[in-house]
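Reviewer 2 asked us to include a model.

Predict the structure of this chain.
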Amino acid sequence: MFTSRMSTQYRKSAQTGEGGVALVRKLVTDAGGIFRPFESTDLGIDAAIELLTTQREPSGDLVLVQIKAGKSYIRSGNFYLDADKDHFETWVRYALPVVGIVCNPDTGEARWVDVSDHLRQHPDSVLNGPYSVEAPANQLFSPGGFEFFLKHFRRNPTSATQVDVTPNLLIRPWEPADAKATRILLNSIAADYPDFYKWLAKKFADPSASKKVVEIGNVIAAFSMWQRKDERNVKLQTFIVSPLFRGTAIGQHLFYHELRTWALDGTTARVHVTVASSKSDLIAYFRMFGFRVEGFSPQRYPRPAAELVMAKHFFRDVVRTPAQLQSFAQRLYDQLWGLDASGSRFGVDATDLAVPATLPILTMTVDSTTSTTAARILLMDLNGQAVLSHGDESLMREFYPLRLHLKGKRYVGIPIYPAWVDAMLSTSGPHTPLKLRVDHVYYCFPKIRSLSAGDLVIFYETKTGGGRGAAIGAAVVQAVAIDSPANLFQNYSDLGIYALPQIERHTNSAGLAMAIRFSLFESFSEPVLLARIRQHLGQQTTFQGLTPLTRDAFEAIRTEGVREL
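Predicted model (structure tokens):
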């Protein structure tokens, strides 16, 4: 006797859930947003909502959405986002805001709740529950209520990086447990690449692909991934900062960490990254770290944008003499810029390009004066107009870890109190010691007025305040300004950690203070104690304010403190 077996059934709960997703999709579209459903169902997130500007252009603001639909989520007229511990543990790690939307499919009513805000307000709930969050009655998810939803999640745009203190961040290797949060973070770029998630899964499983995250608390705020193509070349495959953390210098911390990693390995000569030509913000961002466009690849993306190849070149030279400077400049002219007397570039002339372009004949002049720091290398056209100018500061920044140690430059010791070391330089701590953004600012009395961009400084942590009494790191001066505290604070308040009253305590009799903007800080792995510094200086210095150093003393202290590149 045969018994019939029922075929696989389409569960009613699945149908209700899909109805909820359809309802939210329609509401978002009608209200003027973009609904982006996720392919994967294992993330605890159903979709992302991209918020548009008033001109209906993408704003860059994304909200992650978990959708619940059905009568079981509505009790006594109240709407509840019911979940479990796994969901709470997942949601708390996302840098993007997570929103719960609870729908009544019978009436079409929906309400929303800011899950990320709830978890910030109730951190114990991740471990102990309750694993249910009410969606308030006044937070209707509807075309009429969408404006309130928009205002709640729209970020205020900022043109400057605002950092009050060094973020409590951790740069660490990526772990498989980070996969969910990382996939969410990368969702905004997935549409540009066919089979993106298959490629990403392969990279997650590939131990030769270096993967790092920035973790703040339990949140993955940024992600970088790169892979060595051969002994000399590295491909930066992915670099992204969560929209919630853009403008907080977290990206600079992570990117400078990677620059140091590539520089310290001693073999990497070039790192390249591909960027869509439509991503002007990314192009500018990579330019800040010395990347320049070296190639174009049209029709790479399924939209009207070319793929740009941007590359960063590493030079480990230490230039100490005018002859060494001339030799280095000639290498740039021949090997990096590919210039010759005919005006071609690496033997390519204007007619070889897809669209003929002007490739002018360029000549190079080099100022080998040991005491200067500006306009060191000039490229000029036949009319004598400069088309490219490099001073010491820009050369060291663009071709990092290049160092220009000409004898007549300024070398200065800067005393710094332990409290400022902990907040600004972050040379100590249980995790990665490198937590400094690319540029920073330090305020002091205007003692050495001739200090300028391209000069070099060593930071000395004083014993006052319980410090180590030791040199702890070196940096390159980017700019120096002497002005009233109010003007300095207005110009540099997006950098450093000083408030206006603290700057006012560093004024001279004329009411002026000094701001030293510096970059490329390198933390000494071995702090150099004062006794050793005095041996190098050959004198009993006390580091009371800015202290002039000779080049030889600077190099001796730096060599003792940091591993040579």
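Residues 410 and 450 are 8 Å apart (CA to CA). Residues 1-15, 157-168, 426-436 have pLDDT under 50 and may be disordered. We have added this to the supplementary material.
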